[in-house]
């Protein structure tokens, strides 16, 4: 008779480095930079000298006595990076809106007082690639309903029956839709990226972690362009940038990913 076994998370050194590179790289979407101490701890974890739990404990203890400047400049980056590595090492995810809440809570607990809570207000954000205009994010009272709709549609997908072009377009539609909801006050792109990587791995795709490490800002700007239209100015939503990202991410394509190309009026 088969029995349940405790799942052990023992990625090799190469995979650990990928996870750390991805985690730190994703912080760049908000202009956050890690401390030297985080690099030291991550190297010790990669080399097998420290378990992740000890890395987490050392970071928490470090920031208890850190100066105000350090807490402002590097604490969020360091703590969230370590937590991303934990989630990627675990590798499990549920295909439900509550998964976004859980990821956000885990990443930002102790950093934002609204960690894991859908926003109760409407938001706007000036985007450089839109010359200061903003994506129209979901109304706060629609967040739960829209996400439930998006996730229900995704549950009906059968990727094994799709060709490469259809796979890419469907993943673009799904990630673009949940990002446009922007369910949280901050941390939406990082939450979306971590969710998508976990989801893609869970259904058997081989994810190139270098993409989130090196092109996190491109990923965010591609999500912006896939959700922005201004028909009075002749501007429609454009998925081509997000499609290039996913093509490189999953199928080893070599599209040149240039942020400047996404600036309105550049192409």
What would you say about this model in short?
This protein has 267 residues and is mostly helical.
Strands, helices and their partners?
Blueprint lengths: L12 H14 L9 H11 L5 H13 L3 H23 L6 H12 L34 H13 L8 H18 L6 H15 L7 H5 L1 H10 L14 H12 L16
Helix pairs in contact: 1-2, 1-4, 2-3, 3-4, 4-5, 5-8, 6-7, 7-11, 10-11
Notes on the structure:
Helix 3 packs antiparallel against helix 4, helix 4 packs across helix 5 and helix 10 crosses helix 11. This protein has two domains: 90 residues, no CATH class; 146 residues, Fido-like domain (Fic-like fold). It has 267 residues and is mainly alpha-helical. The relative contact order is 0.12. The chain has eleven helices and no strands.
Oligomer: single chain
Instruction: Give the biggest beta sheet.
Output: none
Helix/strand order:
HHHHHHHHHHH
Level of helix content? 40-55%
Radius of gyration, in angstroms, nearest whole number: 19 Å
Distance between the termini: 62 Å
């Amino acid at each position: 008779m088969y029995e349940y076994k405790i799942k052990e998370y023992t990625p090799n050194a190469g995979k650990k480095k990928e996870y750390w590179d991805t985690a730190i790289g994703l912080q760049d979407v908000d202009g956050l930079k890690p401390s030297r101490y985080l690099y030291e701890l991550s190297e010790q974890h990669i080399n097998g000298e420290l378990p992740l739990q000890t890395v987490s404990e050392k970071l928490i203890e470090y920031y208890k006595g850190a100066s105000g400047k350090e807490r402002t400049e590097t604490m969020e980056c360091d703590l969230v990076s370590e937590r991303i590595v934990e989630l990627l090492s675990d590798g499990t995810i549920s295909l439900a809106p509550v998964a976004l809440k859980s990821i956000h809570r885990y990443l930002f607990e102790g950093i934002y007082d609204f960690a894991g809570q859908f926003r109760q207000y409407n938001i706007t954000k000036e985007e450089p690639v839109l010359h200061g205009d903003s994506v129209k994010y979901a109304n706060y009272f629609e967040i739960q309903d829209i996400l439930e709709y998006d996730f229900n549609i995704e549950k009906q997908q059968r990727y094994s029956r799709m060709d490469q072009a259809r796979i890419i377009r469907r993943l673009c539609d799904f990630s673009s839709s949940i990002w446009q909801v922007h369910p949280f006050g901050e941390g939406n792109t990082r939450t979306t990226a971590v969710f998508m990587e976990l989801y893609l791995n869970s259904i058997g795709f081989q994810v190139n972690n270098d993409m989130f490490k090196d092109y996190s800002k491109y990923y965010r700007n591609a999500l912006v362009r896939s959700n922005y239209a201004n028909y009075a100015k002749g501007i429609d939503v454009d998925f081509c940038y997000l499609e290039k990202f996913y093509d490189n991410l999953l199928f080893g394509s070599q599209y040149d990913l240039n942020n400047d190309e996404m600036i309105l009026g550049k192409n």
